[in-house]
Design goal:
alpha+beta; Glutaredoxin; Glutathione S-transferase Yfyf (Class Pi), Chain A, domain 2; 11 helices; Glutathione-S-Trfase_C-like; Glutathione_S-Trfase; GST C-terminal domain-containing protein; GST_C
């Protein structure tokens, strides 16, 4: 059996691969991380950020260890997970079935990671990435980042119009990615359900997926659309 290990942090973007691994019933070693003084480190204190850099030179999460190889960057991580599914056909369907669907999945993932995540939430939460220690510029960076976030959510809402999931009537890895962005919207003070009705309708379906439910519970997040029992 292929040895799989996921380095992740509760509530971070690593939620998506965490949920996908659960959804596809892939056995893996769960390695919770925390944000330490110098960067991500083991949540249980078993290794430092410096030691994590020797495992994953980017220093971020998620990182997926497959045997002796490390896979990083969200599109690559989600793609790798789909290829590891015990039910291989089921896993690959989550990457799209037709050539156009496969291309559309890549398009979604590239934009979500490169624009909404990096320029939007990256700029809002970590303005120092763009202007280093020029604290006087942080406000301007965050203001611009919020515009990127809201424009991104508007684009998502428009693309989800009349759809159950991002690509239509069946889930793909895109939906696992969209779920944590919805949560992040609330974290930066956006009233998501009031502003983005198509997004909300789709996410209600996504939250019913078993892998999403399991990851939500394991990360201690709580579901948005259904009461806890």
């Amino acid at each position: 059996m292929t040895q799989v290990k996921l380095y992740r942090k509760d509530g971070a973007c690593s939620f998506a691969p965490h949920a996908l691994l659960r959804h596809l019933s892939i056995p893996f070693q769960d390695v919770p991380m925390r944000a330490g003084e110098y960067g991500y480190e083991a949540a249980d204190g078993s290794f430092t950020h410096a030691e994590y850099l020797s495992i994953n030179p980017t220093g971020y999460v998620p990182a997926l260890a497959v045997e002796n190889e490390i896979v990083t960057e969200m599109p690559a991580v989600l793609t790798m997970i789909c290829h590891l599914a015990p039910d291989w056909e089921r896993g690959l369907k989550l990457l799209g079935e037709t050539p156009l669907e496969k291309a559309t999945v890549i398009q979604w993932l590239a934009w979500l990671s490169g624009t909404l995540h990096s320029l939007g939430f990256g700029g809002y939460w970590r303005p120092n990435r763009f202007v280093e220690d020029n604290v006087e510029c942080y406000g301007v960076v965050k203001e611009k980042a919020m515009k990127v976030i809201k424009a991104g959510f508007g684009r998502i809402d428009e693309r989800l119009k009349g759809k159950t999931y991002a690509l239509g009537d069946k889930p793909t890895v895109v939906d696992f990615n969209l779920y944590f962005f919805w949560r992040w919207g609330y974290e930066v003070g956006i009233p998501m359900e009031k502003e983005y009705h198509n997004f909300e309708r789709a996410l209600r379906q996504v939250e019913k997926l078993e892998g999403i439910r399991q990851a939500v519970e394991e990360e201690g997040l709580g579901r948005y659309f259904e009461p806890q029992h």
